[in-house]
Amino acid sequence: MTQHPVVVLDHVTRRFSAAPALDDITLSIDRGEIVGLIGRSGAGKSTLIRCLNGLDKPQAGRVLIDGQDITPLGENALQPVRRRIGMIFQHFNLLSAKTVADNVALPMKIAGRPAAKRRKRVLELLDMVGLADKADVWPSQLSGGQKQRVGIARALASDPLLLLSDEATSALDPETTQSILDLLAKVNRDLGLTVLMITHEIEVVRQIASRVIVLDRGRVVEEGPVARVMASPQADTTRSLLRGLSPTLPRDLAALLAPAGDQALVRLDVHGPDARRPLLDMIAQATGHPARLLHGGLNDVQGIPYGRLFIALGTANPQKVQAALAALTPHTTAIEVLGHVPRDV
Questions:
Q1: DSSP string for residues in 222-273
Q2: According to the model, what pLDDT value does residue 23 have?
Q3: Residues 304, 340: contact at Cβ < 8 Å?
Q4: Which residues does residue 20 pair with via DSSP β-bridges, in sequence order?
Q5: Nearest-10 crossing angle of helices 318-328, 279-287
Q6: Burial of residue 319 (number of CB atoms within 10 Å: 0-12, 13-18, 19+)
Q7: CA separation for the pair 195, 36 (Å, rounded)
């Protein structure tokens, strides 16, 4: 049996006015992936979600869910497609007049599943999300994190193919956010469920996603493995969203930079196994001079290291600087000579 990508947007454009909300977007999401879709307010994230579940139709392009083009489908034909897409919302969207169990059962009730089977499945799902003892309480009796766990259980009730998380952690404190991300990772791992996380919080993407797509003004401006994108963002939008997460040159060092001086200062962006290489030793071997790490550091995305380092090469000799760059370039995602600093810096 052919395995289709779970989601394909094929040159999708959606306009509401002169400026398109989505502008010729092409992307795909494979089965079992956790993908982060990030962008500022107004980037087109909400419109993209509405196109994925058929609430909005593009003026151009196709939207495919598990190989089926949903773009031409009418409301009746869209219903079985929507049942295969679970939604988790920022503000939970629970019905206050229904118990936790009734909230979780709602998609199954709409689909016509018998009451006894609904109850059995509800209890299984509540156990999965850690709320086995909350079936008969009201949403008002729950904390924010518990409400979101109910929302996740409800999203799983129709055994979806795709889970859309729309700013699901934005209203939660950091500790609760971590617990919800751990739960989503468990759902992905145990059920093989494809997860698309729509967020403006890059830290959320760093913790759970394997791939990130950056949206700006209706266009995909960057995409790739999270560690690679965080190690060396290419688009201005991505750099802006990452500001504060990547090391920058301290002001005292920046004040010392000059076009000429005792030693060159380079910035290295590293990712994956290259981040663990003995880079200072490599520079010393290439130049004959000891190099020093002046600033920077390493982080990781799910065990994949990445980082940014500011290194004084120990020499300003142009040939030796070029030799160092030649030795380092194959092992970096970006490298730049920032200027020169004094030897005693």
A1: EEEEHHHHHHS--SHHHHHHHTTTS----HHHHHH-BSSSSEEEEEEEEEGG
A2: 94
A3: no
A4: 15
A5: 140
A6: exposed
A7: 8
| Main-chain phi, psi angles of 2, to 5 degrees | -70, 135
Give the C-alpha separation, 45 to 41, whole Å: 8
Coil vs helix vs strand at 138: coil
Q: Within 10 A of 236 (CB to CB), how many other CB atoms are there?
A: 11
> Cα separation of 195 and 129, whole Å?
16
SS3 (DSSP) at 26: strand
DSSP 144-182: HHHHHHHHHHHHHTT--SEEEEESTTTTS-HHHHHHHHH
227 vs 303: CA distance, rounded Å: 9
Nearest to 57 by CA among 67, 69, 66: 69
Q: Which of 85, 66, 79, 135 is nearest to 111 (CA)?
A: 79
pLDDT at 122: 95
Report d(CA 305, CA 270) in Å as an integer.
8
Structural contact between residues 102 and 123, judged by C-beta atoms closer than 8 angstroms: no
DSSP letter assigned to residue 55: S
CA atoms of 232 and 252, how far apart (whole Å): 24
Q: Compute the distance between CA of residue 82 and CA of residue 86 in angstroms, rounded to an integer.
A: 8
Residue 104 has what pLDDT?
95
Task: Give the residue from 232, 176, 183, 238 showing the smallest Cα distance to 39.
Answer: 238
**Along the chain (345 residues), what's the average pLDDT of each consecutive run of 10 residues?**
83 89 95 94 91 93 95 92 90 92 93 90 95 94 94 94 90 89 93 92 87 94 91 88 83 94 95 92 95 91 87 96 96 94 92
How high is the pLDDT of residue 146?
Answer: 94
